[in-house]
Amino acid sequence: MSIIPNNLKLLTLATSMAVGVGAWLGAAQPAEGFCGFYVAGADAKLFNDATMVVMMRDGQRTVLSMQNDYQGPPEDFALVIPVPVVLQEGDVKTLPREVFDHVDKLAAPRLVEYWEQDPCEARRQQQQARRRVHNVRYDEAEMSAAPGDHGVTIEAEFVVGEYEVVILSAQDSTGLDTWLRGNEYNIPAGAEPLLAPYVEGGMKFFVAKVDSQKVQFQTKPDGSKRAMLSPLRFHYDSPDFSLPVRLGLINAQGPQDLLVHVLAPNTRYQVANYPNVTIPTNLIVKDEVRERFGQFYVSLFDHTLAQNPKAVVTEYAWSASSCDPCPEPALSTEELIVLGADVLPRYAEGFDEQGQLDPDHEVSWKIQGEFVLTRLHARYGKDTLGEDLVFEQAGGLTGGRGMPRNGALDPKSAEVGDSNSFQGRYVILHYWDQAVQCLWPLWDQWGGPPGGHDSSNEPTVAQQLAFEPRNAKLASFVTHSAHAALQLAGEPPLDDRPRHTVKAAEKAAKAAEPRKGCSCSVEAPVAPGGVAGVLGLGLLGLITRRRRNNAGTP
């Protein structure tokens, strides 16, 4: 008996494979992207407000894990995603929800605060201890369709957790469109042309119908219900590493956000068919950003895209086993296995027939130390997304690190190198404003809040950005140095750095200037008696001072 529902009335499309926030489909609200269809019973609107996808890639193996929250009527509904191969029951499993939130927090843009330390205490500590240098290494049988199938075939069907899964294939997009409508799927107008590339490319369609009897629904204060669905994970082999995002554009009511997290051994990923750009980082922002971090970040993101149209923005690239600063502990070996390390060919020898990892096998520590977590962020609409996203390996990336010097941070947003330690980091600085009770203060030492300060000094992360208002002015959030680094129009804010910091910065800038007027050059050699004359004058001055001192003359 087929488990494809016949009473599903509404098919809606969202876009991409992402972490983020969706929207009322049919209303002009911001949305996070998704890669397929949403299908629900009854003529009701769907709301997907938290779609998150984490992908693992190694060789030709892709592991795709996705979490979706659904708000709407508690009738049965389903999810449809294009996939390159026919998936079988052993390829699909459900996962705990907590691991997705952990990945999101680790890679999200972060806001940190640094306090300038007591300059007298800093001097004492410098004199009492040697400078410490901290080196961080980053280092089922095929079934025939019913008569009138229009070339659509049910390739496989099985049950995983609360999901009843069906894999479909089709000979042409018109037939698939007709078959779906004939089976009471209310396809939005204009779906067939967007289905065509996937059908022509031989893609299958993964349909996961949810049995509401097996799902817990959380009731919100307004009386609406949200299904707490188990995340899904499936894997497949394909030479192509891409995301089918165009389908969602059929219902796009405006720009939509796409967030992609990729975990891969020793490798960062970027897009191959769109421009790549890194988010500006290491910006010093105003104190009020603490309460409006999300608004600040979307204004910075929009500014970046305005300067780099159609680009995909890299927001994070770091070893999955470390972070600095860390909003939460780094990913554990167990979490990496949950997300798909157990089915990557390079680690297969470390697992037994039951899929359990041998803790004494070298694979155990390789899993912990080899993965790189990359976060990519795009924002697009019907006029800016022409094709699905294709990914490629990229070199190491660093940026968004270091402590302030002379009231400023390293202005370089990103540098390509051998390792990955890049993050979107934004800093609020608190300069020392207390009395200075020593002769030789040591300024520009930064750390946590002074004793008794009402702050835990933990990083704040920006999540669910699609719901943030996008009408704030970027210039209203940034300081003098960030205004200059971003090359914003208009008058920059006043430089509010204290006098000692400004003087130190001016001194450093002067020291960096090339020296002029040196008389001791190859082109102008010193006369034979020149050096002796200079030494003689110095000696004479020394003798004169000694005579004056001996005579008591000041």
Automatic annotation (TrEMBL):
* Record field: transmembrane: 526-544
> Out of the domains of life, which is the source?
Bacteria
Give the signal sequence positions. Answer: 1-18
Q: Which keywords does this Swiss-Prot/TrEMBL entry list?
A: Membrane, Signal, Transmembrane, Transmembrane helix
Q: What is this protein called?
A: DUF2330 domain-containing protein
Organism, scientific name: Enhygromyxa salina
What is the taxonomic lineage of the source species? Answer: Bacteria, Pseudomonadati, Myxococcota, Polyangia, Nannocystales
